[in-house]
Amino acid sequence: MDKVNVLSKNGMFIFRFNDGEFGSKWCGIWNEDTKFVDYFAFKLNGEYLSSKNVKSFQMYNSQFARYDYVSGKTEVSEDVFCSDNHVIVTLKSKDQFNVEAEVGVNIRRREEDYIPDKTYNLEVIKNGFKATYKDKTLYVYYSNGSFAYSPVYSKHTPGEYARSKGFSRYFDDLSEQNKFVPGIIKSSLKEGGDLSIIFSMQRMEEDAIFGAINSRLRISKDYNDLIGVICDSYGYGDVFDRGFLKDVIDSLLSYSNIPKRKVYAGFPYFNQFWTRDALFILPSFITINQPNFARDVMKNIIALSGDKGIPNFAGSNLFPMDTMPMLIIDLLDYYLKTGDSQMLLSLDPWLNKFVYIMKGRLGGNFIHDRGRETWMDSMDREYSIEIQALWLRAMEDLLRIERIYGREDARLPDIIDKLRNGLGQFKRGSYLSDQLNKDINSANQLFVPFFLDVDEELNNLIIDNLKQNLLTEYGVLSVAKNDRSFDPKSYQNGAIWPFLSSIAAGVAFKLKDYDLGRKIIEIIKKKNFDAQCSSRINEIFEPNGKPQGCVSQAWSIGMIPHIIDDYFIGVRIDESERKLIIDQPPSDLDFSRNLTALGRRVKLEFKDGKVVSDLPISREDKKLIIDI
Predict the structure, then answer these.
(1) Neighbours of 358 (CB within 10 A)
(2) pTM above 0.85, yes or no
(3) What DSSP character marks residue 73?
(4) In this structure, are 204 and 276 located in the same domain?
């Protein structure tokens, strides 16, 4: 059980090995980018529960998991439940046993490691204690027993365990960590008894403590039911089965913070609101009927924006050139699904500002990105292919937005023509180059057919190159294996990125190569999913299939719902004619879907090459048209 797991809700999360160990500086209990607990440990009748006596682990969903141990002759279960502001750990056994619980407190920011002479303000309170460091306080409550006050300060290196399990230095750099143990919680439990410990971000009164303990299973079940309701809007074929979709939707929701209008890039160490990552997966939130959350996240991103555009994350000095076009693209997608024209109006001044910023970078037929202004932010790039594709799509979408209001920005058609003409200059024989002036065969050319409608020759060139040079048995390489810049150990010059695999699957479905699309989705399901982190997908994989990077990355899995509707089914919405348009599906496509177009619910069923809807369907040039 060398895998790990993350439980999370609205920014609160606990990261841990599946064998029960807290074997990394990233393990423990966090609230957004602040850590509070390095570990907790239970000693039963003198023996610690650990990897030495764990028997099984089961993750029910992103909020609830169970560890089973055998200590001596005592079988004991440990339930872990993650809620908005607290984590509840419940120890239970059919046998009678004595238990001592130890908590390793370590309140720190994500970028901090060991701090000499670090001390806490410790206060014993009813049913627990609280530990305060600077402006952060951890409250620890227990359901029964007593607390033996005996504070001990020390340091440790939890990452040694991760290294022993084959995790790389990129996962844990073996830096020392502060450890503060305030004392020991002691309890003697009768047969069938249990001990619950709550790790909370806020003070809780006694009735709230026991209310939280007693309601945790119901809340977890309600969350499971919510996932089920979303899944019920899909019918299942051989590609997107219910089990996979449940995990996809659970994953997607687990990266969200609904009250704070955020999407986290990944856990445990991308526990920040990265605007680019959020914008790539917002269409999926819209797709699974969470449009209000998507709207609020876009508003939050706008609130972070300034004269230089949209920052990579709050407080960042980096203003990428892909975030602004992505927001425009997402905004139109939001309107097409919801019909909410007020949202378009509210962002109108910012859209004009983004065009102004873009025009300052427009030279001839190209957008001049430079340095580390793209998703490949570990290397300097210039005139990048995906930046051209994103801005071209954004300008086309902005033109549609303008026409919704019966107006037209005279600048846009000329910009669109320039950018479209510029795409041809990236062609290098059998592929499109990564950059205008640097000949690299990278996966970034996939952005062109994913976001744009281009001619058949260009589509065929890109998809043939995908099959021959970019696709492996573990997914899509960031750079082709036969390119001179390819490095199998490189982060972005050779690694497999599941988010690129998702884009590749979308391209295959869009271009009606369903066999290729299915093949890539199967790779994601069978070779990427659950590889190192339970029910999640890593940020990257080495070409040999070894998982690396952030173990639970949002966009590695979060684009799937969007790809189902807009690429696999191929839904397009004509806002001026109020029509939903679908290309004639292949004869072997069996699938059903309840979706939303311009605020109207539409039921679709695909079977044996036929489509049935609750609304009348007409046909025109192999296209199915539904008036909405």
Answers:
(1) 21
(2) yes
(3) T
(4) no
CA distances from 56 to 65, 95, 616 (A): 11, 19, 52
Which one-letter DSSP state was computed for residue 585? P
How buried is 226 (Cβ within 10 angstroms: 0-12 exposed, 13-18 middle, 19+ buried)? Answer: middle
315: left (phi over 0), alpha (psi -120 to 50) or beta: left
**3-class DSSP state for residue 519?**
helix
Exposure letters 530-548 (e unless 16+ CB within 10 A, then b) = ebbbbbbbbbbbbbeeebb
Residue partners of 244: CB distance under 8 A and separation at least 6:
525, 529
Q: Is residue 228 part of a domain?
A: no
> How many domains is the chain built from?
3
Q: How far apart are CA 182 and CA 304, in angstroms?
A: 39
Q: How far apart are CA 33 and CA 12, in angstroms?
A: 9
Q: How far apart are CA 616 and CA 78, in angstroms?
A: 54
Nearest to 212 by CA among 39, 81, 105: 81
Q: Measure the CA–CA gap between 476 and 496, rounded to whole angstroms.
A: 5
Do β-strands 381-382 and 471-472 pair in parallel, antiparallel, or remain unpaired?
unpaired
> What tens digit of pLDDT does each residue of 552-564 get?
999 999 999 999 9
The Cα 17–Cα 1 span in angstroms is: 8
Q: Mind listing the pLDDT tens digit for each residue in 569-592?
A: 999 999 999 999 998 888 888 899
* Spatial distance between the Cα atoms of 429 and 505, rounded to a whole number of angstroms: 23
Q: Per residue in 294-338, pLDDT tens? A: 999 999 999 999 999 999 998 899 999 999 999 999 999 999 999
Distance CA 322, CA 569 (A): 26
Domain match, 578 and 563 both: no
* 241 shares a domain with 180: no
* Paired tokens of 13: 């999360």
- What CATH number corresponds to the domain at position 219? 2.70.98
Our CA dihedral for 360, 361, 367, 370, rounded to 10 degrees, sits at: -160
Q: Hey, what are 199's tokens?
A: 């790790």
- Is the same domain home to 43 and 192? yes
Q: How far apart are alpha carbons 112 and 560 in whole angstroms?
A: 34
**One-letter amino acid for residue 9 of the chain:** K
133: pLDDT strictly greater than 80:
yes
Instruction: Reduce the DSSP state of residue 60 to 3 states and report it.
Output: strand
**C-alpha dihedral sign at 345, 351, 353, 359:** negative
Residue-number span of the structural domain to which 579 is assigned: 574-627
> For the chain, first and last CA: distance in Å?
51
Of 550, 568, 586, the one marking the end of a domain is 568
Outline where 405-513 has alpha helix (H): 411-423, 447-451, 456-465, 498-510
- Residues 178-197: what's their mean pLDDT? 96
